[in-house]
């Protein structure tokens, strides 16, 4: 099957409403054409600036607009970041993702993030950042410093978007994704399900992602982690099967992309996660914590991988990694 960027909403709707076993079967078959069947890419996350965010994303513990109980933290010291990256590498993760609760990085933040990228990259890890909106020059400078991926989610459909965020537009998000792509960075972009949206909105989100000129290399599908104090604290829980369907449809639309089980995994059983892997998910965040909320944790994930016969995808050799390995041997 060729990679397509001309999907219609009608086609996506037809994929969604198939019998679940048909959907899972197709997704798993296609998954195996593009990826090793039982390998999962593993990333870790670190919050480098926590809380007091000026944006009003209704799901988020870090927004200054709501009253979530959160230990806020200013920019953390680079040494702390390096230490966390070392622990992440030792645990087997291949990508280290650094996130900041910013609307966008200010110019005064750029030396800090550029230095951090250079140091983490020099350790032989893939680097990822999620810092909010970027302009073209910022994206280029991140790339030059050695950033591999930039995460910036569309979050939901264009239609539902204004119910969730008012402080930046859907088109602002698309602009940032263009800057990231134009700078030669790999794109990580997905969304959240369980925000109170309907299936048409989930179709709308996948439609936007799958009709970008190039599919994001990485597509996180977050399941809302309800946060007390935010407007979505008590939203009705999404049926897990609908989340599984969303993953399977994402796999069918974007066969070459990594589909990541992101936020919300901690609340899912082993069997539910197994079904998500069956649906073609092939990436997770490991570790005890995401940015501010709990994650599944290393020992639970090790047991899950052993039970399911899954392995961690090895690091991809890059010039930087080869140099680091050569130094380690010498
Ligand atoms: N501030 C930056 C931004 O919004 O682009 C980066 C960090 S932000 C926390 C990254 C993503 O995490 C959001 O776009 C959203 O998809 C996801 N996220 C945040 N809070 C969440 C929650 N409570 N449940 C599920 N996903 C969440
Ligand atoms: C993404 O899509 N999910 C990750 C990552 N990108 C940065 C973040 C999940 C955050 C979950 C809520 C929290 O821990 O605060
Ligand atoms: Fe800020 Fe990002 Fe949270 Fe939105 S999702 S409030 S931009 S930290």
CATH topology: TIM Barrel
Overall CATH architecture: Alpha-Beta Barrel
Rg estimate, integer Å:
19 Å
Order of helices and strands: HHEHEHEHEHHEEHEHEHEHEH
Hetero groups bound?
S-adenosylmethionine, 6-(5-methyl-2-OXO-imidazolidin-4-yl)-hexanoic acid, iron/sulfur cluster
| Number of domains as seen in the coordinates | 1
Major sheet summary line: 10 strands, parallel
Strand element count? 10
Low-confidence stretches are none
Structural class: alpha/beta
**CATH class descriptor:** Alpha Beta
Summarize this entry quickly.
The protein is 40% helix and 14% strand. It is an alpha/beta fold and 330 residues long. Strands 1, 2, 3, 4, 5, 6, 7, 8, 9 and 10 form a ten-stranded parallel beta sheet that branches.
Describe this structure in words.
With 330 residues, the chain is α/β, with parallel strands linked by helices. The chain has a single domain, classed as TIM Barrel. Helices cover 40% and strands 14% of the residues. The protein has twelve helices and ten strands. Strands 1, 2, 3, 4, 5, 6, 7, 8, 9 and 10 form a ten-stranded parallel beta sheet that branches. The longest helix is centred in the first third of the chain and has 15 residues. The protein is globular and about 50 Å long. The site of 6-(5-methyl-2-OXO-imidazolidin-4-yl)-hexanoic acid has 17 residues, from strand 2 and strand 7. One of its GO terms (molecular function) is 2 iron, 2 sulfur cluster binding. Its EC number is 2.8.1.6.
